[in-house]
Each structure stands twice: as structure tokens, then as C-alpha cells.
Amino acid sequence: MLRSHTCGELRMEHVNQPVSLCGWVQTKRDKGGMVWIDLRDRYGVTQLIFEEGKTDPQLLEKIRSLGREFVVKAEGKVVERVAKNDKIPTGNIEVRVENLDILNPAKLPPFLIEDETDGGDDLRMKYRYLDLRRNAVRKNLELRHQMMRQTRTYMDSKNFIEVETPVLIKSTPEGARDFVVPSRMNPGEFYALPQSPQTFKQLLMVSGFDRYYQIVKCFRDEDLRADRQPEFTQIDCEMSFITQEDILNTFEGLVKHLFKQVKGIELTNLARMSYADAMKYYGNDKPDTRFEMRFTELNEVAKGKDFSVFNDAELIVGICAKGCAEYTRKQLDELTEFVKRPQIGAKGLVYVRYNADGSIKSSIDKFYSEADLKVWAEKMQAAPGDLLLIISGEATKARKALSELRLEMGERLSLRDKSTYSCLWVLDFPLLEWGEEEQRWFAMHHPFTSPKPEDIHLLESDPGKVRANAYDMVINGVEVGGGSIRIHNRELQAKMFSHLGFTDEEARRQFGFLMEAFEYGAPPHGGIAFGFDRLCSLFGGADSIRDFIAFPKNNSGRDVMIDTPSTISNAQLEELSIRVSMSGKK
Amino acid sequence: MLRSHTCGELRMEHVNQPVSLCGWVQTKRDKGGMVWIDLRDRYGVTQLIFEEGKTDPQLLEKIRSLGREFVVKAEGKVVERVAKNDKIPTGNIEVRVENLDILNPAKLPPFLIEDETDGGDDLRMKYRYLDLRRNAVRKNLELRHQMMRQTRTYMDSKNFIEVETPVLIKSTPEGARDFVVPSRMNPGEFYALPQSPQTFKQLLMVSGFDRYYQIVKCFRDEDLRADRQPEFTQIDCEMSFITQEDILNTFEGLVKHLFKQVKGIELTNLARMSYADAMKYYGNDKPDTRFEMRFTELNEVAKGKDFSVFNDAELIVGICAKGCAEYTRKQLDELTEFVKRPQIGAKGLVYVRYNADGSIKSSIDKFYSEADLKVWAEKMQAAPGDLLLIISGEATKARKALSELRLEMGERLSLRDKSTYSCLWVLDFPLLEWGEEEQRWFAMHHPFTSPKPEDIHLLESDPGKVRANAYDMVINGVEVGGGSIRIHNRELQAKMFSHLGFTDEEARRQFGFLMEAFEYGAPPHGGIAFGFDRLCSLFGGADSIRDFIAFPKNNSGRDVMIDTPSTISNAQLEELSIRVSMSGKK
């Protein structure tokens, strides 16, 4: 090793020892007679000291030439600091340097390598390798490593086997967002990159592997929203001979283990909520349960007056914002603007101020007496000082808009603290959802999800009513994982495909191998997959997943550092038997 | 859980307990009055017993309908066996079944699900999920999991951070065997799948990650020999502020840890050999050192007689096969045929029998006296009873042929036992090798490998003589890992690219980001990568890597189970702005 110690490990007990350290010049302070350098590596920062009269003049000259981010090797003796720094673990000592080698000089970085940097997003993406030097970013990746380790520790302790499934798989028409890979050896044919290892993990269950997991890259070529990546990582799991309850317990265990080991937080048992209740009380299948503010439906008490907006509405639904009765007109206008934004789409917002003095004042006093409004307030468990916010209209839309408003109010009332965690199982999802545009049913989870046995009789008569043995894990309003009990019976699987509009021939061509596998002794099985990037960002208390990925792509799917995607040569295209065809593009 | 225990865990202490087991019907023996079923799961086999008079007649009827590989749940009581089976851990007990549910029936499998199966390769690949049910195959994947765990345990204990590098990267002309991925969002542009995370791990060193590892999928679109796969797994590692010696020690530690933890074998310190010595003494840069049989060069003692074959040869080189003096004429002819095979390419084979009685007899007695041959025998440290085998010709070809013969003799003499392990570091590889066809130098390892400082002055004058700080780990004649100290200086890297025939513009376009990174403070660094599939097969005592991969591809790069690669729809091609162009193909 070029060093005897790292920059994070020297303490008082090392005083008088000769040491050698390697690292980057973080800062240099030159006070004439004395020069200090903070030397940084992954493990910490150690102060180097040089003193005129004590330090060799040539060495002093050399260190005065050092710039930020130079890579050096320093040899010297550990001494006790006069002015101790209790903010860093090495703050009691410094190294009086006798010899220093410049291992590599450095140009001035395009932005500050510090916790608070002056670099914009684009610049930091282009020089990602410099951004990764910043403590904040490196700590995110250390957290990620810790999450991986602890995930594996837990899964191994529960007898799960990690099995690598293939990356070069088969494209399916369902997977319109597959990335494909032309095969040179099989001209005109393509592999696809997996959106998930779903069918393979089910086959492993058919093989008797009993308990499988994998921390695995998956791929989806979709238009990237702010926080999606074309390649992402999942904790992918499957178990045999289990009921839904076993899966919930096993993976509740995983999440508890991670919180305990990585964050030092002891979670109590996770709350559970049906999809129906989540929609009814939060207007959302991934409610943020760090705060209550549940929906109250007001149809019974708000209809039948002269207010046609409510009378014509399918649903009148409200939330009670504790202690907000004194919101100003301006604040209320802001909230109204907020719900009327196109992406939220409410027509308007009704408010009822339940003043601290017990009086009640609303935006629709013309139609409702104080007594009427008191009834609402009571139904909504409001107390004097609270503000009621009410939206009406078509039920689905009203719930969606109120859900957004609820989250906004949670934000305004500081109820969404990133260091507080509220975990929830959402259960009993519908099996199917209707595609208005395509005029057919789609699998809400995926086509391999099992309907609840007691609902199977509804498959023909009322498909939308059929509930699935499907579950999501939601933390702080973010869906971090989801899964289901699978179909393990060929007939039922074939029936599902047919409900989803597959012809027998299509089902056979795409999933014949799986349906055939079900005929050779498939055990009852089910599983779950967690979005690992998202889980890491939640544990890191961050909004974006990007800073928990070493080399992320930007919103156009580009890595601007290595400049990819990029064109390839005609010779390479020819080898692969493909041509670029830009008709109607760009 | 549908079961109270697995099929591997019941013992005498469970006798009289009520239990429920789930699994596959391995065998059924029906002796009229008694029926036994061996029920199998991942954890073992448990015998179920049914007895006329004691078992409910309807249940007896049901179990008589069971076929092989039916999936069942059996409930009953553990009883002590009359005839114990000490070959299996559950052999002292059996379960007297009171209730049995058929969870899924099974068609008759196309081959026997047993250690010795009757299924051919093609059939087993098509029904890979059934092949994976066989103990032998499942144990391979359990070994692989164990290898992964122990690798991570070791690397974590040494402060390495596992960092995931991207799968969608940039194609480089050097990488003519890149798999590419068209980008839908960037029409006409392509990602490439990594042949290794080389540049990313070097960037992580520039970022100060200090110690990186990853167990990672890599991809190479090359014509597949019997034992290559288009996607394969590496243990990829990199360290900063180290010398070559540190890397050798660290990864010698990894290999020792794996042998100890996975195989229970304590390795002594690994032997080391220079590339030059490996070529000189074994004719091979990955010598199988389970046995000696080193080469002896005979130019000095064999030239100058009337034997023109030797007189004209650049090299005369032989091995001594202990105790083989009595090989028959037929055996010797076989060896001659062996070395004359086109893929080995020797013109002939000279043998010298050093008989047990001290006499000497050779195939070239016409030219050499017994005294001459005694000199050879002495030089080759032969004893009476040994056989000398000698090849001559152009030096490189003679060594290659003799290396093959040496391995063949090792095989014939049973010196290559798969349960014996001999590990070796091969050091000091040449930096460059001459491409005869392309008439230019190629990097023997890769363009990022550092020349030995003391050899840099030869780069211009005698490039072939420059040695690299590169090393391979060889186990039993198989290269399982290789790496190098990297260049961390922009000028030297640019010089290397120019030696490899890159124009400045090409170097900049392809690796500009890396060369630029070297200007912002790159630490000295180096690393290694192990072929994980190969390492697993070695530990498993097998020749082929295929049985250590859950879902391998065949020699045409096909997964015949899911039938990929396959065609994709025109709509999908259009979305991706590509067209299939079969000109001159197929």
C-alpha cells in the first residue's frame, strides 16, 4: 500500500507514530509561517501541517504549488493539535509532514467538491466522477451498499437462494417498452432486456427452488419522467407453498430489518389497508400515512339544497385541515388555484372555516346555513380552528384532486417530515382495469396475478369487481414494492390471457413455455419486487433516485458523461443485419 | 405456510408429531397392502407411508392415482421407520399420512428427474425448468449462491463497496463484439451492453471510492465456443493507492477464503510464475500446475548430428513422462497422431524410452547413440522407466504443441484430478502483442494497462519487449481471473492509444471522458476481474460452465426454452427507427 493509514483513522493513540497518507487536497490555508492542508479520502479528512523553520524549504515550496484536488502522498509524524476540531473524528491530531509526493496534479474542477456545491445539474452530470467525490453523493452510494448487504443478510437468513436470471430474453408485444438487442448470429432476430424477471422466477418455483431472490437490473424504454431511469434495480423475490399472509410477514420482516440495521429505527407492525379503503379515505392507492386528514364523504348531508354544483355531483368529499381556519383569502385562493391546475383538474374548491370562536363561515354561505355547516363539521370531526376543504364532481376525479390537495396541505403543515417513516400494506387490488382507449381489460398488476378464489365467479359477469391476491408496500406515500400470489394452473392462466384479449395462438407463442411448465407440477407460489433505487432514496431522506445511482441517465435517457446513446458505424450495423430508418422521426 | 416442515428436516425427535409437508412425488412403490411415496422438495426427501386397513380407502384410491412429479400436500404423523435408510438425513422416520391434497397434477416429464437422467442436452435445455429440479443441477446453483455470498463477505470485510455500474453504455469500435441497443428516444442512436465495467470502475477510483467491487453481468457477442456464453458474470474489482503486490495479496486472500469456506480446503500461499517462465516451462500462459512435467530445451545437446529435422529447428523441447517407458507402439502412435492433429499442428513426435533396465531406445536411434540419449535423459532428469517425448520446429508452435501433449499425458496419467486444486499467479505479461493480420500492435490485456516503469523506454524501440503490470490467476490450467495496474496519467494513456493505432480524434471521441478524468486528480489504481461462471464450475469440479448458470444459452446464442432471439413486429422496429436488412446474410 502507498499509505500506512487512511485519512479517517488517526487518533490521539497514534501521536508520535510515523505515518503515510494518500488522498486529495481538499483545502490549503497558507498563513505565511504555517501552511495547513486538509487531505481527503473516502474515509475522512486529516490535517497536514507545515511550518516555516521546521519544514524543509523545498518541501514548503512544493506544497505551495499544490492546487485543490491534487493527489498526494504525505509522510510524517502524528502530533497532537493545539486547536482541536471536535467536528471530525481525526480532529485531535494533525500530521507534521516530512515528505510529500505529488501522485497526480489536478486541473481546477469545474465546480466545488463540497457538500454545498456551486455546480448545476448538467455540469455535475457531465463530470459525474467529480460529483461522486462529494461527501453527500458518496454517502448515498455507501447507504445503497449497506441496503444491499442487509437485504442479502436477511434473505440469506430466511433460506432464499439468489439466482441470476438472464438479461437477454424475449420481447413480448405486451412489452411495447422493451429495449431490444439485435442478434448478430441470428440475423433479423432480437433479444429483449427484461422489464422484470417475472417468468423466470416463476419457472424457478416450478423447478422447486422454493425461495428465490435477486437484486437485479431491469429495463424499461419509456418516456422518462423526472424520476424514472431506463435501467433500474429491483429486489426480486418469489416463494412457494405459501399464502399471501406468509409473503406479507416475510417482507414486512425485510423492511423492519432494513430500518433497524440501516437507520436504527424499530418499526412496529405495519398497518394494512384495502385498496377500496385507500381510495375511499385517501383518494389514492399509495396514501401517505405520515398524517391522517382522511376523506369524509358529504353526499348525504350536502345534497338537496339550492347548490347545483353539489346536487349534480357524483361525489362531495372533503378533508379537515387542523388549525387552518385562519388561512387568509390569499392562501385559500392559492389552494383553489392549486386544485384547478390542469394536471389536477378540479373545477373549484369549497372551504368552510370553523372559527376558533365556534362560528362557521364558508365560500357557499348563500346555500348553507351555519347549522348545515355544523353538521358537516361534526361529520368531519372538525374542531373550532379547523378548515374544511371540499371538492365535488365525478367520483374518481374528485378523489384524485382531493388527494393532491391533501398532500399539499400535508406539505404546508409540515406533516411530511422525511425522517419520519410510515409503512403500509395496501391489499386486495382489483385484478383488472378497463382501458378506455383500447376498450378492453388490462391486468392491473400483471397477467400472472391470481384472482381471489371467492371472486373468480365474477370474472365473466363483472370483471371489474374481481379482486386480486395482490399487495403493495407503501412508505410515506411512495409505492416501494408490489407483488401477488400467482396463477399456477394452466387453465386459469389461459382464461386470464383470454380475458386480456390474447388469442390462444398469441398466448401460446408468448407464454407457451410458462403455461406448459404449469402442466409439469407447479407449486402454489407468489412473490414481490421492491424498487431498490426508490427504497434507497427514501432511506436517504431524498426525493430523487438519481443521486442514489452511481452513473444515472438524464431525462432523455442520455449519459452525458460518456455521451451515449450514440451512432454506430455502418459496418457494425451491417454485421447486425439492421439499418437505421429515420422515416417520420426527429 | 402450506407446510409445517420441509421434506429435509424431520428426525427421530419429531416422532409422534403431527406434520404437514409439501413437495413433488419422486417415486411411488405400491406393494398391495402398503404404498410408499418419496416426497421431494429443495431441502430433501421424506418417505410417506399408506397402509391398507389403517389408511382411509378413499385416500388410498387417491394416492394410487398420483403420478411422478405431482405436487401434493400431505398431513399426518411422524413415525419411526422399521427399515431405516442411513443414506438420507430423514431416513430414520416416515410420515403416516392421514390427509393428502393434490395441489397440482403433472404430465409425465419428458426425461427422468433423477441424478442420472435419460434426457439429452437439447431436451433438457428446452425443459430447463425440469432439469433444474434434478439434485445435481440445483446443487450447482446452490454452490454458486454460496460462492456469491462468500465473495461478498470477504470483499465487505476488506472495505470494498459494491457499486452498480450501468448496463446501457457506449459502443466503441474496439468493441466490435458489442451487443447494441437502439434508443427509441434518440432515433438512429444506440447504447451498447458492457463487455466489462472497466472504464466505470476506473472512474470510481478517480471519484475516490478507493475500493470497489461488483458481481456483474457482462456481454460479448462472439461466436460461441462450446463453453462461452453471450452473457456471463464477473467479480469485478478495483483498488486505489496500491502496488501490484497489494492486489495479489488481497485477491489471493479472496481465493483462499472461498476455498476454505466453500470447499473446506486450506490453500498454502499461491505460487507465482512470470509469463516468460510459463511459456518456457509449460508452453502456455495458463499452465496446469497440478503436475510438474516441465519442458526441457534440448537445442544444446541435440543439434549438430545428422538429424536435419532437429538441426533446422528453432527449438527442440521435451517432457519426461514418468514411468511410461513401457508404452506400446500403439500408444506411441496415438500420441504422434495426437500432436499431428491440425489444431495442434506438430509435424511429428520423437520419443526416447529410458527402459527400466537402464537401456535407452528412441525413434531416432539412426542419428543418436545411447550415450547421446543418456545426456538428454540426464538433462531432463529422467530415471529408468521414464519416457521422453520431444517436439521440434518453430519455437512458438513447438511449445504450443508440447503444451497440448503435456496436458494429454497429464490426463492419461490421471494427474488432473478435478478435486485437487493448484492455484498460480502468472505475472509480467507483455504489454503488447503483434497482430499479424492487421499489421499493428494490440493491447494484450486492454489499453488501460500500465507498462512496467522500467520498460517504458522500450515503447518506441522494441514495443514487444515491454512488460505490463498485468497478472492472471490460473487454477488447474484455467485462467479464472486477470487484471493489471492501470495507467492514471493522461499523457501515458494518450501515448498508449497512439501505439494502438488510434488517431487523437478517435481516442478523444471514444475515451475522452476517461482521459479528461485523469486530469482532475486520478489516484494510482489497479484491479482484477474473475470469471465467476468459470470459478463456480471449477469449484463444482465440472468442465462446463453451462450447468452453473440457471438459464444458459446454447451454442447459437439461443434460449430454446423461451425461444429467443426472435423476430419483433414492424411496429416495434418503426418505433425504434430501425429496419432489418438481410443483404448477404443467412
TrEMBL record, chains A, B:
<dbReference type="GO" id="GO:0004815">
    <property type="term" value="F:aspartate-tRNA ligase activity"/>
</dbReference>
<dbReference type="InterPro" id="IPR004364">
    <property type="entry name" value="Aa-tRNA-synt_II"/>
</dbReference>
<keyword id="KW-0436">Ligase</keyword>
<keyword id="KW-0067">ATP-binding</keyword>
<feature type="binding site">
    <location>
        <position position="220"/>
    </location>
    <ligand>
        <name>L-aspartate</name>
    </ligand>
</feature>
<comment type="function">
    <text>Catalyzes the attachment of L-aspartate to tRNA(Asp) in a two-step reaction: L-aspartate is first activated by ATP to form Asp-AMP and then transferred to the acceptor end of tRNA(Asp).</text>
</comment>
<dbReference type="Pfam" id="PF00152">
    <property type="entry name" value="tRNA-synt_2"/>
</dbReference>
<dbReference type="InterPro" id="IPR004524">
    <property type="entry name" value="Asp-tRNA-ligase_1"/>
</dbReference>
<comment type="similarity">
    <text>Belongs to the class-II aminoacyl-tRNA synthetase family. Type 1 subfamily.</text>
</comment>
<comment type="subunit">
    <text>Homodimer.</text>
</comment>
<keyword id="KW-0963">Cytoplasm</keyword>
<dbReference type="InterPro" id="IPR012340">
    <property type="entry name" value="NA-bd_OB-fold"/>
</dbReference>
<dbReference type="InterPro" id="IPR006195">
    <property type="entry name" value="aa-tRNA-synth_II"/>
</dbReference>
<feature type="domain" description="Aminoacyl-transfer RNA synthetases class-II family profile">
    <location>
        <begin position="141"/>
        <end position="565"/>
    </location>
</feature>
<feature type="binding site">
    <location>
        <begin position="531"/>
        <end position="534"/>
    </location>
    <ligand>
        <name>ATP</name>
    </ligand>
</feature>
<dbReference type="InterPro" id="IPR047090">
    <property type="entry name" value="AspRS_core"/>
</dbReference>
<dbReference type="Pfam" id="PF01336">
    <property type="entry name" value="tRNA_anti-codon"/>
</dbReference>
<dbReference type="Pfam" id="PF02938">
    <property type="entry name" value="GAD"/>
</dbReference>
<dbReference type="InterPro" id="IPR004365">
    <property type="entry name" value="NA-bd_OB_tRNA"/>
</dbReference>
<protein>
    <recommendedName>
        <fullName>Aspartate--tRNA ligase</fullName>
        <ecNumber>6.1.1.12</ecNumber>
    </recommendedName>
</protein>
<keyword id="KW-0030">Aminoacyl-tRNA synthetase</keyword>
<dbReference type="InterPro" id="IPR004115">
    <property type="entry name" value="GAD-like_sf"/>
</dbReference>
<keyword id="KW-0648">Protein biosynthesis</keyword>
<feature type="binding site">
    <location>
        <position position="174"/>
    </location>
    <ligand>
        <name>L-aspartate</name>
    </ligand>
</feature>
<feature type="binding site">
    <location>
        <position position="479"/>
    </location>
    <ligand>
        <name>ATP</name>
    </ligand>
</feature>
<feature type="binding site">
    <location>
        <position position="229"/>
    </location>
    <ligand>
        <name>ATP</name>
    </ligand>
</feature>
<dbReference type="InterPro" id="IPR029351">
    <property type="entry name" value="GAD_dom"/>
</dbReference>
<feature type="binding site">
    <location>
        <position position="486"/>
    </location>
    <ligand>
        <name>L-aspartate</name>
    </ligand>
</feature>
<feature type="region of interest" description="Aspartate">
    <location>
        <begin position="198"/>
        <end position="201"/>
    </location>
</feature>
<dbReference type="InterPro" id="IPR002312">
    <property type="entry name" value="Asp/Asn-tRNA-synth_IIb"/>
</dbReference>
<feature type="binding site">
    <location>
        <begin position="220"/>
        <end position="222"/>
    </location>
    <ligand>
        <name>ATP</name>
    </ligand>
</feature>
<feature type="binding site">
    <location>
        <position position="445"/>
    </location>
    <ligand>
        <name>L-aspartate</name>
    </ligand>
</feature>
<dbReference type="InterPro" id="IPR045864">
    <property type="entry name" value="aa-tRNA-synth_II/BPL/LPL"/>
</dbReference>
<dbReference type="InterPro" id="IPR047089">
    <property type="entry name" value="Asp-tRNA-ligase_1_N"/>
</dbReference>
<keyword id="KW-0547">Nucleotide-binding</keyword>
